Q: What sequence folds into this?
């Protein structure tokens, strides 16, 4: 990233910039490198400020702020989740993010995060599966074939070598679109007629549905021994995907328990129900998968450190890339204490220009 002498200028990555950046690197390589950043930050989990995201819930959706800091950089993401949006041609999830220098408080990056959130969610799923899924797993069921599904497929292929997908969505056109988008990227794809059919023969099951309600996407009889479940869609109060009995049979791994107990699948369980924190598995202080028959469940709701990892990765990539715009974001008077004088000088210049 070229350095400018103007302190008011902040690099801004637009949607077009982000797409260009991802495609210039390559989707699989981008995800692989992002996985490394996510895993690195999970391994240094204790260095981060951690708080459940700040959520404003409405009947139709949620708007959230997700902040964190490692003491050197501060990051936050603004994100919404409105499942009804697809009916009006809008995205269910949109987001943008900011990364700032803790030393002086100045932003060092502003970026779109609708695309970047899809990538970081998939990268986090793949990192968790690296530690929890059966070794050598190549077949994954994806139940819910909306905007996140292709990213999940790419991340699992890039990091774990998953190349056989069994797809199901209550909307057959979503499955058709997903299969069409992925057909030229080396996957063997089965379009299934039910969730039950999709999980047959799958070693990994990803649930990533959008409806904001308690649902039973997976029932207890659908889950056999040895499966890894990547539960992504249940991510706010009153929104779940798995039958409670599945949770009772699984070893459950979470990002940040205080947040997951409110938003994740484990909102169905008592507040003191034992779960394991994923960061401890990544750091090597606890064991993930212990046996071939163990059912592992990653109760994924998304946490601010993952967005921090994504912001940090993009910032590093921009150091050698020009895919950003200069955003005139911060007031920068010649004399830091003379903000009003800056305003008056601007008025004088504007008046002179008119004259």
A:
């Amino acid at each position: 990233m070229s350095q400018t002498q103007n302190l008011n200028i902040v690099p801004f990555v637009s949607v077009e910039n982000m797409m260009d950046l991802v495609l210039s690197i390559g989707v699989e390589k981008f995800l692989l490198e992002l996985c490394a950043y996510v895993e690195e930050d999970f391994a240094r989990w204790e260095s981060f400020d951690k708080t459940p995201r700040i959520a404003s819930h409405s009947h139709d959706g949620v708007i959230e702020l997700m902040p964190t800091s490692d003491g050197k950089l501060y990051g936050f993401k603004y994100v919404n989740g409105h499942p009804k949006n697809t009916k009006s041609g809008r995205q269910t999830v949109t987001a943008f993010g900011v990364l700032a220098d803790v030393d002086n408080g100045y932003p060092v990056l502003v970026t779109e995060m609708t695309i970047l959130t899809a990538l970081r969610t998939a990268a986090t799923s793949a990192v968790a599966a690296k530690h929890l899924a059966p070794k050598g797993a190549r077949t994954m069921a994806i139940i819910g074939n909306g905007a996140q599904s292709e990213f999940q497929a790419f991340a699992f292929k890039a990091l774990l070598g998953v190349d056989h997908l069994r797809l199901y969505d209550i909307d057959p056109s979503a499955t058709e679109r997903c299969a069409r988008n992925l057909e030229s990227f080396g996957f063997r794809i089965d379009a299934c007629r039910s969730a039950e059919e999709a999980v047959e023969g799958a070693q990994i099951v990803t649930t990533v549905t959008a409806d904001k309600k308690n649902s039973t996407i997976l029932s207890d009889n659908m889950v056999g021994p040895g499966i890894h479940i990547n539960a992504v869609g249940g991510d706010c109060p009153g929104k779940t995907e798995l039958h409670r009995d599945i949770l009772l049979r699984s070893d459950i791994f979470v990002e940040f328990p205080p947040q997951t107990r409110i938003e994740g699948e484990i909102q169905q369980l008592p507040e003191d129900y034992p779960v394991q924190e994923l960061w401890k598995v990544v750091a090597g202080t606890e064991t993930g998968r212990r046996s071939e028959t163990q059912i592992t469940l990653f109760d994924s709701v998304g946490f601010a450190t993952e967005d921090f990892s994504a912001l940090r990765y993009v910032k590093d990539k921009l150091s050698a890339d020009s895919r950003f715009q200069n955003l005139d974001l911060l007031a920068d008077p010649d004399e830091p204490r003379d903000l009003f004088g800056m305003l008056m000088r601007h008025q004088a210049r504007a008046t002179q220009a008119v004259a």
Remarks:
- The first helix runs from residue 15 to 25.
- Confidence is low (pLDDT under 50) at residues 1-5.
- Residues 9-115+306-354 form a domain with the ornithine cyclodeaminase, domain 1 fold (CATH 3.30.1780.10).
- The longest strand covers residues 73-81.
